UniProtKB/TrEMBL annotation:
The keyword S-adenosyl-L-methionine does not apply. The lineage of its organism: Eukaryota, Viridiplantae, Streptophyta, Embryophyta, Tracheophyta. It comes from the Eukaryota. It is a single-pass membrane protein. Signal peptide: none annotated. The keyword Zinc-finger does not apply. This is Cytochrome P450. Belongs to the cytochrome P450 family. Pathway: Secondary metabolite biosynthesis; terpenoid biosynthesis. It comes from Xanthoceras sorbifolium.
Length: 487
């Protein structure tokens, strides 16, 4: 007897065949392509692991403890959901290469809206590809090594005087407070020749309000009271800053004021065709951008130099020896020159090692603008996902840096593998202030080690809460002692 299947059985078989036809090729393609799922916990819709990263940021272990913990759970690659968005932490040189080299093509900067509100839509941090290229090109010249000799002379004088003053007082002071003040004043002087103390204080207060808002908005709930309060404060601060910049530009244009500085070099392009000069709003947004991008990063790196040199006395001694020999035929009052700075080869390695270990910018955020694959097509990244180039993980990878926890400037005697040392990023968005930051750090190290020894007065390693830049909570307090040198 032939067993004729029932109608229900036929429907089940048809459904099974359709499902197999749909899923089998996909599964086969995945198997054949060697593609792997990025591990990690996406958690609840929208919230995901948002509370965990907030709690890490509010702790004295710093926000990177969130990443460190997940690496222990899932391995190097992991994904998570934060504030409603999927984030992938990219830990490899190959991943970094792929993202840096397709910046603006497959990836864009994260948090565009809140950033544009804060620094302005003409800022380098927000401008679309074509205008970014143009603006960056027009801003670059004053940041070349040779254009920075006036900045070097000025900041050297300030370090010399203020360190001497602090030593004479004989009291303990926080290196972070010292470095924040000096870098801010020196940048405002280099950019706009501002030296008036009360104006500097007002600008610093307003810049801090704008920076806080820029970093906080992506993690705040619109409409909440705290959000409204912060938005109001930052809008007023930004308005005041723009007014100050506008008035300054007007005084320069009318000939009431004329200086040799960054702003003047931007305005002196007056007769150039419009594609070869910046509009006033482009100048103003980027003045603010440069201060925000350069101030707290450089100041934090200065603080970490002091901390690492205190913990590694033999490095400190070797650095002091080099610094004393660079200026052995000069009196202390004579300012350093670019030639002197170029002779500080061990000093430069100390700066690099400090940047490798301190990771002033922990990771560099991007958003995928297209579906793509990463790490030799191993991992799929979907359009809209956030990818964070994890510089900290790369800088502490034992396969790239031997004994990575060891502060060892001599590791830079040898060349580094591409994308294994990226404190200033890479590609079209690489840091515009690299030379300025290096000069500031080298001059600081010179004045500190060739003039003084110091003791760190509080060794507490706790990090500042709620800070996106790793900084010691106590600001690294030190007391200076003059060095008895024979010249
Ligand atoms: C130790 C100090 C500094 C560090 C570690 C640092 C690091 C970085 C990094 C990693 C980037 C790229 C971020 C990304 O790819 O998303 C960047 C961009 C930038 N930095 Fe720095 N920076 C420092 C100092 C400065 C200074 C002194 C200035 C200028 C006054 C500056 C101006 C900029 C600007 C304008 C950008 C954006 C470039 C663009 O998007 O085209 N930085 N910085």
């Amino acid at each position: 007897m032939l067993n004729i299947p029932s109608k229900e059985e036929l429907i089940i078989v048809a459904v099974l065949l359709t499902l197999t036809a749909f899923f089998l090729p996909k599964a086969w393609r995945k198997l054949a392509s060697n593609r792997r799922e990025i591990p990690g916990q996406l958690g609840l819709p929208f919230l995901g692991e948002t509370f965990s990263i907030i709690s890490a940021t509010n702790s004295t272990h710093g926000c990177y403890s969130f990443v460190r913990l997940r690496r222990l759970w899932y391995g190097k690659w992991f994904k998570t959901r934060l504030f409603g968005k999927i984030h992938v932490f990219v830990p490899s040189t190959e991943g970094a290469r792929m993202i840096f080299t397709s910046d603006f093509v497959n990836f864009n900067k994260g948090f565009m809206k809140s950033m544009a509100d804060a620094v302005g839509e003409k800022s380098l941090l927000c401008a679309p590809h074509e205008s970014h290229k143009r603006i960056r090109c027009l801003l670059s010249d004053p940041f070349s090594m040779n254009s920075l000799s006036k900045f070097l002379k000025n900041i050297d004088k300030v370090f010399f005087e203020r360190l001497k003053n602090l030593e004479e007082k004989g009291k303990s002071f926080a290196v972070l407070d010292f470095s924040m003040k000096i870098t801010f004043d020196a940048m405002c002087n280099m950019l706009m020749s501002i030296t008036d103390v009360s104006l500097l204080q007002q600008i610093e207060k307003d810049v801090t309000a704008v920076t806080d808002a820029m970093l906080s908005f992506p993690v705040m709930i619109p409409g909440a009271q705290y959000y409204r309060g912060m938005k109001e404060t930052f809008e007023q601060a930004r308005k005041r800053l723009m007014e100050t910049f506008r008035e300054m530009i007007e005084r320069r244009r009318s000939g009431v004021e004329c200086y040799e500085d960054f702003l003047q070099s931007m305005l002196d392009r007056g007769s150039c065709p419009s594609n070869e000069k910046l509009s006033d709003s482009e100048i103003m947004d980027n003045l603010l951008t440069l201060i925000i991008a350069g101030h707290s990063t450089t100041a934090a790196a200065m603080m970490w130099c002091v901390k690492f040199l205190d913990e590694n006395r033999e490095v400190q001694d070797r650095l002091r020896e080099e610094q004393l020999s660079v200026t052995k035929n000069k009196s202390d009052e004579i300012p350093l020159t670019l030639e002197d700075v170029k002779c500080m080869s061990y000093g430069l390695k100390v700066v690099k090692e400090t940047l490798r270990m301190s990771n002033v910018l922990l990771w560099f955020p991007r958003v995928a603008v297209n579906d793509c694959t990463i790490e030799g097509k191993c991992y799929e990244i979907k359009k809209g996902w956030h990818v964070n180039i994890d510089a900290t993980c790369i800088h502490y990878d034992p396969d790239l840096h031997k004994d990575p926890m060891q502060f060892n400037p001599s590791r830079f005697d040898e060349g580094q593998k591409p994308y294994s040392f990226i404190p200033f990023g890479s590609g079209p968005r690489t840091c515009l202030g690299t030379n300025m930051a290096k000069i500031t750090l080298l001059v600081f190290l010179h004045r500190l080690t060739s003039g003084y020894k110091w003791t760190v007065d509080d060794l507490d390693p706790s990090l500042e809460r709620k800070s996106h830049i790793p900084r010691l909570r106590n600001g690294c307090p030190i007391t200076l002692k003059p060095l008895n040198k024979m010249k």
